[in-house]
Amino acid sequence: MDEKRVLALLGFLLGLVAGVLILVGAFELGRNQSITVELIAGRIVQVVFGVVILFASLLIYRRTTNAGGFVNLIVGIIGLFVPGIGTTEAALAIISGILGLIASGTFK
């Protein structure tokens, strides 16, 4: 296995963890929590972010590392400013995107 494939695999795994953490947070309901339109809209945004990160990570793994890395990087940066998306998940997505871009040979 060459070093680019290892970086792509590591980027995929970090993106997978970020996407799963976002999805777990989206489906978590606390006790005595009133269901409002804001809650549902926030959860839908979290689900969309999680699914996009998972698909972008799959692109990184399937050797389309440039596109997947770019999508994870952009979604991770946007996720830093979206309420409900944790900074840990956004940071993992950003690191996954950077590793995907490095694995594609964008930064030579």
Descriptive overview:
By secondary structure, the protein is mainly alpha-helical. The protein has one domain. 78% of the residues lie in helices and 0% in strands. Helix 1 packs antiparallel against helix 2. The chain is elongated. The two termini are 20 Å apart. The model has no long low-confidence stretch (mean pLDDT 88).
Computed structural class: mainly alpha
The count of β-strands is 0
Would you identify the regions where 5 or more consecutive residues have pLDDT less than 50?
Answer: none
Helix content class: over 70%
Shape field: elongated
Rg over CA atoms: 15 Å
User: What is the percentage of strand-forming residues?
Assistant: under 5%
Number of helices: 4
Order of helices and strands: HHHH
Compute the average pLDDT: 88
- Let me know the largest β-sheet: none
First-residue to last-residue Cα separation: 20 Å
Count up the domains: 1
Transmembrane segments: 7-27, 39-60, 67-84, 90-107
Keywords: Membrane, Transmembrane, Transmembrane helix
